[in-house]
């Protein structure tokens, strides 16, 4: 059996920080896992280096479930984004190793393909509605079947999801958190106008998505959902903070606009009530922050009981290792919805060579054994860590709000 002989974390910053776990076995087979937690990267690297890796050495790399249970139960202190991202990285690397030894792409080990490819959505954004719709048109012309729309808000210097760069979006932009000012009132006026303009320009054959990014109260979210209904959004994402899952009952009472939640979740307990009360339509939890493929499959199976579909997070702060692992998950689950695909920069892709390819609005994980992604350590070493924080948001009167 392939024993784990060594493991290490690799921190690199090709334009933004990534933490990668690399595990080596007695067979000489290696596997990689993403351990990136935007703005808190070194916490996960330390959790792995100082607390997890010593416990891995000598274990049977094939025992993915037992190692998962050992790291989850054995820590005593359970859950949380740092812990579950570290466990996720181990899980991804062990599935990578298992696939390489079996000579099969991981999706074949997960039950095989349930679809020909994985529908993805791109990110159209702009300072104005016109700019955003123009970007969306470019995504449609590039073959995307689904596009997220995020525009600036008149009167606000910055709005979530609006990038200075036309194609790439990276919110962790400063050595200390950038302070932004938010107005829900101004935002709630412009979002329906954005969707009206987009439907007018693009028609009905493209899925349009939107990320509220945790910023509204439940009743405001109910109002926004109702205002968007004429434009049939594919989903309204993160309408309100989800620590209290019961908050979503009020939104559900007021709108049929589909709801997606979960990119900040790290375990099934964060979404159990949302799913069993059918308060959401898509679960956004992803491989790197929700305990890896092993735990994410449990969440997807539970969601399937209630007709909730997957819609995994796929922002640039999730490395190509997560994107590769997510595609093996996406193509193999029965209740797949859509996969976010915020493309990485060429600089990042050079550090993480990968097999997945975009074609006709879809990604496919490829047929390489394992996850089909690796880390070029020499290239990674060229990009030293650089501290970066996500922004924070305050209201005009200084009250802390949700970014
Ligand atoms: O839906 C999304 O992609 C966003 O919510 C992310 O861009 C999110 O802001 C970042 O992943 C935070 O690091
Ligand atoms: Mg989001």
Describe the protein in words.
The protein has helices at 41-56, 64-74, 81-102, 106-109, 129-141, 184-202, 218-228, 248-254, 272-276, 292-305, 320-332, 346-351, 377-381; strands spanning 4-12, 18-25, 30-34, 118-126, 146-151, 179-182, 207-211, 235-237, 259-261, 282-283, 309-310, 339-340, 357-359, 362-364, 392-395, 400-401. With 403 residues, it is an alpha/beta fold. The strands form three sheets. Strands 4, 5, 7, 8, 9, 10, 11, 12, 13 and 14 form a ten-stranded mixed beta sheet that branches. Helix 6 runs parallel beside helix 7. The termini are far apart. The model has no long low-confidence stretch (mean pLDDT 97). Bound molecules: D-mannonic acid and magnesium ion. Residues 38, 171, 211, 213, 263, 313, 315, 317, 340, 342, 390 line the site of D-mannonic acid.
Output the CATH homologous superfamily of the largest domain: Enolase-like C-terminal domain
Helix proportion = 25-40%
- The global form is globular
Number of helices: 13
> Can you tell me the number of structural domains?
2
Q: What is the architecture of the largest domain at the second tier of CATH?
A: Alpha-Beta Barrel
| Main sheet specs | 10 strands, mixed
pLDDT average, as an integer? 97
CATH class of the largest domain: Alpha Beta
Flag low-confidence runs.
Answer: none
Along the chain, the helix and strand elements come as: EEEHHHHEHEEHEHEHEHEHEHEHEEHEE
């Amino acid at each position: 059996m392939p024993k784990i002989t060594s493991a290490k974390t690799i921190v690199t910053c090709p334009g933004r920080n990534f933490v990668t776990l690399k595990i080596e076995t007695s067979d000489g087979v290696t596997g990689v896992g993403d351990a990136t937690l935007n703005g808190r990267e070194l916490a996960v690297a330390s959790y792995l280096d100082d607390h997890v890796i010593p416990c891995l050495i000598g274990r049977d790399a094939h025992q993915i479930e037992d190692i998962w249970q050992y790291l989850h139960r054995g820590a005593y202190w359970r859950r949380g984004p740092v812990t579950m991202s570290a466990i996720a990285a181990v899980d991804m690397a062990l599935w990578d190793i298992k696939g390489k030894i079996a000579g099969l792409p991981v999706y074949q080990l997960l039950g095989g393909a349930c679809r020909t490819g994985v529908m993805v959505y791109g990110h159209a954004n702009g300072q104005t509605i016109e700019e955003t719709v123009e970007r969306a048109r470019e995504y449609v012309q590039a073959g995307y079947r689904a596009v997220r729309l995020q525009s600036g808000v008149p009167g606000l210097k910055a709005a979530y999801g609006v990038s200075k760069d036309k194609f790439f979006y990276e919110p962790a932009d400063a050595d200390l958190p950038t302070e932004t000012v938010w107005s829900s009132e101004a935002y709630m006026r412009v979002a329906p106008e954005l969707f009206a303009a987009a439907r007018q320009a693009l028609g009905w054959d493209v899925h349009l998505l939107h990320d509220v990014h945790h910023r509204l109260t439940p009743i405001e979210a109910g109002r926004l959902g109702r205002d968007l209904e004429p434009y049939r959004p594919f989903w309204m994402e993160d309408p309100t903070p989800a620590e209290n899952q019961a908050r979503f009952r009020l939104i559900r009472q007021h709108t049929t606009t589909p709801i997606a939640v979960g990119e900040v979740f790290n375990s099934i307990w964060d979404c159990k009530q949302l799913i069993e009360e059918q308060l959401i339509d898509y679960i956004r939890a992803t491989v790197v922050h929700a305990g890896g493929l092993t735990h994410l499959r449990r969440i997807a199976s539970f969601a399937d009981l209630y007709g909730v579909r997957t819609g995994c997070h796929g922002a640039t702060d999730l490395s190509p290792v997560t994107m590769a692992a997510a595609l093996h998950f996406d193509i193999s689950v029965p209740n797949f919805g859509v996969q976010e695909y915020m493309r990485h920069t060429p600089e990042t892709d050079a550090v993480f060579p990968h097999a997945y390819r975009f074609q006709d609005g879809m990604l496919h994980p490829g047929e390489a054994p394992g996850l089909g992604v690796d880390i070029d350590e020499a290239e990674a070493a060229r990009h030293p860590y650089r501290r970066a924080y996500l922004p924070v948001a305050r209201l005009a009167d200084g009250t802390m709000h949700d970014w």
